[in-house]
Amino acid sequence: MTDEQRSQHPEEAQHWHVPQEVFERIEAILRQHGRRLAPDGTAANNNGSDRFYITVPPGPTDIQWRTLKHGDMFAVFDRFGDIPEGSTGGIYANDCRHLSGMIMRLGGRRPLLLKSTIRSDNITLAVDLANPDLRVDHKLVLQRNSLYISRTVFLYHDTCFQRFRIHNYGLTDVHIVWGLEFAADFADMFEVRGMKRDRRGELLEPIVRDDTIIYRYFGLDRLLRYTQLIAEPKPASCMDGQFTFRALLRPQEDAEWLIAIRCGTCPAECAQEPEVCRCCPDDRQPLRVLSATVDEARRRVAHVYTSNELFNDWFNRSWADLRLLVTDTEHGPYPYAGIPWFSTIFGRDGIITALQSLWIEPELAAGVLRYLAAHQADRHDAATDAEPGKILHEVRRGEMAATGEVPFRRYYGSIDSTPLFVILAYEYAMATGDLELIRSIWPNILAALEWMEKYGDRDGDGFLEYKRYTKIGLRNQGWKDSEDSVFHADGSLAEGPIALCEVQAYAYGAWRGTARLAQELGDHELAEHCKQKAAELRNRFEQVFWDPELNFYVLALDGSKRPCRVLASNAGHCLTTGIAGEERARLLAEQLMGDRFFSGWGIRTVAKGQVRYNPMSYHNGSIWPHDNSLIAWGLARYGFRRHAARLLQSMFDASLHFDLRRMPELFCGFERVPGEAPTLYPVACSPQAWAAAAGFLLLRACLGLRPRGLRRQLRVHRAYLPEFLPEVRVTNLAVGDARVDILFRKHGDDVTVRVERRTGELEVVVIK
Fold it and tell me: Do both 307 and 286 map to the same domain?
């Protein structure tokens, strides 16, 4: 059967015949690489397919989504401001999709799209629409572009506000009929991601009044989730799934409508009818509060102005994306990981985001440290991969987490969150001089170190290893946590316990950082112990992880201590904390910036030529902005600032092609072709916190900024600027309780540094 025939007869395409011997040959090849054939004939991973794999929904994958967030609520719209049913769009709260469909129709048809954008502060979605040609009995009754429709959308706490204004630019009176169609499936986030459930809760009958629709779902966790839609003025017709509005507009007249969509939960006893507000709330006061909040945040952070306006656009959008994802907790601000899949607290993501943005917004690091310290594991719990002293991986508040269908209600399956927590504490103290916070979490730092010695090192060989306790937990527990991300040179998957190369680098940084903190706090005995642990780890790491044939650090050691001889970007993180020797750092840098790793858009997660290399994969050949930023920070540490500048330029160049200049979670690792854009990864989160903050760390690496709040000193260490960025001004940069404005100017290969303003006691040391 030809491809054309299969497309015309899809039911036959599912059953076209392949000889048994061909299947057997394919299976034999796949077994050599640790894979097998799934029942549908596709290649699957060993041990079954990844149950947390995010599927691509049917339909178009090139929708330019518009995302908004406030608190624990977020929304994903198409460019019309609608939510197409069957897509991943929706209005979500606490890991539940409260509204799965919303379509505006004018005269029974979708309007024409004129413009759609998320405003620069990320508060509102602004959509401009117009009417299409409207006909009755084939007769034109309203010419297109006679009506202008303004649709403004924003979120505030548990409510999505949508304001519609329709203006008649025609020459005659117009009787308009327009409406909104709704659907609510109350799908758990993991269902939206593609997981199948054996059973669900009960969708109750909607409650419909003259201006209100209330959808209800009674979950297996005994909670009632509801979505209330209320309109002002009252619709001409209100029924299950639809509001209909009518108005007479004379020439140059307009009319406005406000729709409020409130999402909530309540206990079982209110299952009959939740207590909800009976009137449509005013949207003007919340909008003023949101604007004031963003303005106040801007006053607190450092600002970057450059001679390149496109770079300024990228940098400003990145900061706005980070602010969008930051949620206020009882312990301070915390960046949720990303929309739509990870709009919740992640330990690793929060820590790395705080590290990336530490010089811009140190308050974020304080919030992350306090939250993670407060939720540090204090006992063994196999169901959540918890051990005393371990820093959490993920928090979920949805139905499937509450019932134990997924283990992520409070899950600790992360090997690197714990040493990274200690590194963040050290970097925060160095930048801010805030030893008061360090003292308040000092018991948590000591507990983290104890976990590293007692539990993280499972076999006493000096390395941190992971292996899940629960079968429904994550098989891989480094930042590359997909099923097939840790493998041997022949493609076979590594079996645990697994010791990743970058995790040993993080452990080294944690020991060295604690040694410095202990010295500052007067605990000299602990300082010496930590220095010794760091030195021992570095010596053993260099002996075991370096592969002289690869001239590279191996990806990992498996449970039998066999090295995974794979060229992967993980090794680049060994530059970040300084565990690599000088000569080996040079060899690493050469390979990372060579053709096999560097695509022209950034460093790939796995080098070309490796058996599992696939530029379209999640972790085995794609490009992750946060990964590149950490590598650039490490390259700069060893003096390779030209390489760091090259990575900054490649990420900036990529940003020019992304919608809204928004850096996605990842994109495909195909070679850069002149005149073509980078290839998108279909289900990447956008915005994503550590992708948004990647540009901050990349620029810091080039500028050589090393704030030392404990010494009331800012070091500018061998600043280097790429050609496209000849001038950079940083203002309101906080170092301890001092603030400073600095101008960087490029002169050939040299960069001059000038202090333009300084408040408080601060020494600026420029090292050429």
Answer: no
* Secondary structure letter of residue 195 according to DSSP: -
Query: 176 with 166, same domain?
Result: yes
Percent share of the chain, pLDDT over 90: 85
- DSSP assignment, residue 411? E
Please determine, for residue 700, whether its predicted confidence score (pLDDT) is greater than 90.
Answer: yes
Q: Which residue range(s) make up the domain with 17?
A: 3-45
Could you tell me if 733 and 683 are in contact, meaning their C-beta atoms sit under 8 angstroms apart?
A: no
Residues whose CB is less than 8 angstroms from the CB of residue 330 and which lie 6 or more positions away in sequence, other chains included: none
Instruction: Quote the CA–CA distance of 546 and 571 in Å, as a whole number.
Output: 10
Give the burial class of 761: count Cβ atoms within 10 A of its Cβ; 0-12 exposed, 13-18 middle, 19 or more buried. Answer: exposed
Rounded CA-CA distance 630/506 in Å is: 12
pLDDT at 699 over 80: yes
Task: Give the pLDDT confidence of 278-310 residue by residue, as tens digits.
Answer: 677 888 899 999 999 999 999 999 999 999 999
Q: How far is CA 99 from the centre of its chain?
A: 22
Lowest mean pLDDT among 62-71, 80-89, 555-564, 608-617: 62-71
Dump pLDDT digits (tens) for 11-20: 333 333 334 4
Q: What residues contact 230, with CB distance under 8 A and at least 6 apart? A: 211, 212, 259, 260, 262, 277, 279, 280
SS3 760: coil
In the three-class reduction of DSSP (H, G, I as helix; E, B as strand; rest coil), residue 719 is classed as coil
Q: Are strands 332-335 and 705-708 parallel, antiparallel or unpaired?
A: unpaired
Cα–Cα dist 20/39, whole Å: 14
Let me know whether 345 and 494 are in one domain: yes
Span of 274-283, 307-316, 384-393 with lowest mean pLDDT: 274-283
Distance separating alpha carbons of residues 296 and 367, to the nearest angstrom:
17
The residues facing 264 across adjacent strands are 226
Q: CA 225, CA 217: separation in Å to the nearest integer? A: 5
CA 439 to chain centre: 30
Give the mean pLDDT of 542-549.
Answer: 97
Q: Please state, in angstroms and rounded to a whole number, the distance separating the CA atoms of residues 683 and 341.
A: 9
CA–CA distance, 111 with 271 (Å, rounded to integer): 38
CB distance 633 to 696 below 8 Å: no
CA 411 to mean position of chain CA atoms: 18
636 plus 744 within the same structural domain: no
| DSSP per position, 465-504 | -B--SSTTS-S--SSS-STTSSB-TTSPBPPSSBEEHHHH
> Are residue 266 and residue 140 in the same domain, yes or no?
yes
**Global pTM?**
0.91
Whether 80 contacts 113, CB under 8 Å: yes
Which tops the pLDDT comparison, 30 or 365? 365
The CATH number for 210's domain is 2.70.98.40
**730 alpha carbon, distance to own chain's centre:** 26
β-pairing, 713-717 with 763-767?
parallel
Residue 621 lies in a domain: yes
Rounded to whole angstroms, the Cα distance separating 145 from 742 reads 50
Residue 261: what residue type? I
Read off φ and ψ for residue 162, nearest 5 degrees.
-130, 120
Give φ, ψ of 564 to 5 degrees.
Answer: -85, 95
Q: In this structure, is residue 59 part of a structural domain?
A: no
Residues 377 and 266 in one domain: no
CA separation for the pair 61, 679 (Å, rounded): 12
CA distances from 549 to 147, 494, 543, 592, 736 (A): 69, 20, 14, 16, 46
270 and 330 assigned to the same domain: no
For residue 29, is pLDDT > 60?
A: no
Q: What percent of the chain has pLDDT over 70?
A: 91
* Residues 591 and 710 grouped into a single domain: no
**pLDDT tens column, 701-738:** 999 999 999 999 999 999 999 999 999 999 999 999 99
